[in-house]
Design a protein that fits this description.
Strand content: 5-15%
Number of helices: 12
Oligomer: single chain
CATH superfamily of one domain: NAD(P)-binding Rossmann-like Domain
Helix content: 25-40%
Order of helices and strands: HHEHEHEHEHEEHEEHEEEHEEHEEHH
Length: 341
């Protein structure tokens, strides 16, 4: 077991530590890297991992983070050697002024508040990819999507596979499928090599499905078992797989699930948290026979297994939550079965 994580600085160092595979990929990759929507939950550590891997590979490249930076957090990026550009990506004139880059990571999107602001959700998730593709038609693009595009699948199977039909539930999931279709259209039309990453779910200590469950238990709240099973992956491992995906860009886009190999029982995870945090656990409802689950086999065969397993994540999260560690207060709402976020 790795030592407990005592600070956010230590956490960010761990989340941005590149694997040997990432160093090899970024050693081969030609050109600069621009990350659109870099100020979200994963962007800061992914950008830093790209910088660390490039330096380890002896490659000089610009790594540029683009976001609105409404919180004014450019300084933290620039301290890590990452250039920053303020841009509202929905403003085409602003996007047109962005520098060209041979490699693009698309992380922009909208999930929370979907049920109150559907039009903005569709604009961010389905319209914006077209704006980006017109600007970066000569680049390689790795775009984040979500396992929500599949819909629910039987808990008796191994999870949805990349070639399974998409059956999105709710406007968020439908708009994310729209994102994929728009990227595919421009990939085919302009010959843009791409990867679509269906992520489900990234976790660290300040947010993620495991943090959601741990905080419910710490606060003495009931755990709803209707979404009784889940997948998750350590955010640092998801970062590494996303960067390695540049080795697999294709026309039309190559699609890959990024998540952990295990199907985790919500009941058992919560019981582990209860024991570690010495808190009682109360459940309501019963486990359904379907859940949002993805089969990670394709990605794991190419990128290798995650470095951090669920037991280690659970131990770290329990220690962090019980110790009063900072939380981003961005719940995943993974328990939603009707697609409303």
């Amino acid at each position: 077991m790795k030592v407990a994580i005592q600070s956010e600085e230590q956490l960010d160092d761990l989340l941005s530590e590149p694997t040997a595979g990432v160093i090899e990929t970024l050693g081969r990759l030609k050109g600069d890297l621009i990350i659109l929507g870099v100020a979200g939950k994963m962007g800061p550590t992914l950008a830093r991992m790209a910088r660390r891997a490039s330096e380890a590979a002896g490659v000089r490249r610009r790594i540029i983070g683009v976001a609105r930076f409404s919180a004014g957090d450019e300084t933290a990026f620039e301290a890590q050697g990452i250039e920053t550009i303020r841009c509202d990506l929905l403003q085409e004139d602003e996007v047109a002024k962005l520098p060209e880059a041979a490699n693009v990571i698309f992380m922009a999107g909208m999930k929370f508040g979907t049920s109150q602001n559907e039009s903005a959700t569709w604009a961010m998730n389905s319209y914006l990819p077209g704006v980006v593709c017109r600007k970066f038609r000569h680049s390689r693009i790795v775009a984040f999507s979500t396992g929500n595009v599949y819909g629910l699948t039987s808990v008796q199977g191994s999870g949805s596979r990349e070639d399974d039909p998409c059956q999105p539930v709710g406007e968020y999931a439908m708009s994310c499928l729209g994102r994929e279709r728009v990227f595919e259209y421009f990939s085919r039309s302009f010959g843009i090599p791409m990867v679509l990453i269906r992520l489900n779910y990234a976790s660290e200590l300040r947010y993620g499905v495991l943090v959601d469950l741990a905080r419910h238990i710490w606060n003495g709240e009931m755990i709803d078992l209707s979404m009784g099973y889940l997948n998750t992956i350590w955010q640092g491992d998801a970062n590494a797989m996303a960067l390695q995906a540049f080795d697999h860009v294709a026309v039309p886009p190559w699609v890959v699930n990024v998540t952990g190999p295990e199907m985790l029982s919500v009941r058992r995870v919560c019981e582990q948290f209860g024991q570690l945090m010495r808190r009682p656990v109360r459940f309501t409802g019963t486990e359904g026979d379907t859940a949002l689950l993805s089969d990670a086999k394709r990605g794991l065969e190419l990128f290798g297994p995650p470095r951090i397993n669920p037991d280690q994540m659970i131990e770290w999260v329990a220690d962090w939550v019980a110790g009063g560690g900072r939380c981003l207060n961005k719940p995943t709402h993974f328990e939603s079965r009707d697609g409303r976020f």
